[in-house]
Amino acid sequence: MLNKHQSLQNASPKQAIILLIGVLILVSIGVFHTFPPTPASLSPSPSVFSSTRAMSHVWQIGSNPHPTGSLENTKVRQYLVNQLKGLGLEPEIQSALVINPQKKQAGRIHNVLVRVSGTKPGKALLLSAHYDSVHTGSGAADDGASVAAILETLRAIKTQLPLQNDLVCLFTDSEETGLLGAQAFVEQHPWAKKVGLALNFEYRGNRGAFMMFETSQGNGKLIAGLATAVPFSLANSLMYEVYKRLPNDTDMTVFKQSGIPGMNFAAIEGYTHYHTPIDRPEFLDQNTLQHEGDIMLALVKHFGNIPLTDLASTDRVYFDVPGLGLVNYPVGWVFPLNVLLLILFGAVLTVALKTKVVRASRIGAGIITFPFILIGFALTNHFLWLALRQLHPEYESFIQGDTYNSHWYLLAFVFLNIGMFAYLQTCVCKWLQPIEFAFGIMACWLILLVVTSVWLPGASFLFFWPLMAMQLVLGVLFSLGVDNPFSLWEKAGMRVLKSNIPHPAGKGVAINSPMLIFLGSIPGILLFTPLIRGLFIALTPQMIAVVIVFLVLLLGLLTPLFELIGQRKWIIKSSLLLGLTALIAGSLTAGFDADHPRQNTLFYA
Fold it and tell me: Where are the beta strands (DSSP E) in 434-543?
């Protein structure tokens, strides 16, 4: 039977504070990594993108609803033509009758197009955004802001040396009523056959960072170009894997179906404003517009100056990491990397079993227990949200499932679940050693890695790198504990944070296990923190159960770190208190006002 000295010992209170501060710093980095940058000054250089200049277009385009076929739609179209002529360009209007038999939709559309000639022959680069709005909203963000961003990008490009490739800017009509404008372009306009790459820009809200959420298949060269042009872009192949399996459509859907390679960009925060009367210029976040413009201009400069004739290549796994930028590698690496991790996991587990740090039966118990924990947490949070909706029946009026004050509920759910998981860990660790529980959880991670690698290879990074980091750390701790006297650790002055690792001979050896475990936790925290926030924004509180599954997966992987920090009662009490405080704040801000009106829905039957 193991005793408590044959496991990682708790850090001292001072050490625990240091570790907690480190975790909070990592979480803050992960969260703020998803925020858009500050807009340019009121008088920026003419060669750069200015959200201030772009906002003047937004006010003209997005002050009134302008659906396809309306008088306001005609006014917006004429405004675009006038602005393009003012830049010294020669715009044209493509008028066409379009029929989509699959969707049983048809309409007469009026696209606005302009071409900026390059210095070399070859394929053209396409910038695309739709200028029509829904009947119920002014379309300031969706998609007036993207139209304005293209106008401002064109202005900035005109101040610089000509691009090598032709640049085609397409302002589509009737995107909201069946993607008919994009269909008319690819089926009926001669420029479509010359397009080598399409970049489409959208909004599903009115704020937040701009992210690349969709690519065409064979995206290797596209991702490499994105990483070069926008090193700190927000993108990951998990979004790519998920989105291509969803029924959602944008103009990029039409471009991809016609064989044009492309990337799709969007901002998705502020879902409460999407397709509603409050999608107005005064509610558009200028930081978001600046972020969109910076990305757009950088991509035009890059892809406008490289050949676009042969962009098809193998897919890549890609993900953004705070401070590192866009990490990417071929999908073909997934299998050998997984084999390497399986070997490492087996080796670490073998050492742990041989040194009797863990017991195989108890690891098996951990493997069986953790899925039930995930299911239990998911159901608990789902019913908690249902209870909150009963408490606040006004939430039923929100069309998209999001609420104006959902940020309070994100904080509430996160803190409440941290407290509940810490309490649960205390209970479980009365009959399982923490390291045994951790190995059981990591085995579950390994299963998820294998599953995603087979069916969603672009999502495999999410489980591979955090698990690999933790296995490397545990491998170092266990192997050094077996084979080395650790004198070098002492001489190197690494005694700030120490704990005991069991030696086969029964001798405790002093090493920096808390610091190493903390280092092994960094990839998981940096990858999952922005993911959890992003999932909550994308899925809304309606799907809180899915969000919490990823939170609990992270907390489970951090079990060794929780054990080292100790102070579990303090963590439980403080987390639950913060969670309840956030819930109260959510309840106090559940009302409506002029800027946050009650939403209405009208159905015709």
Answer: 499-501, 509-511
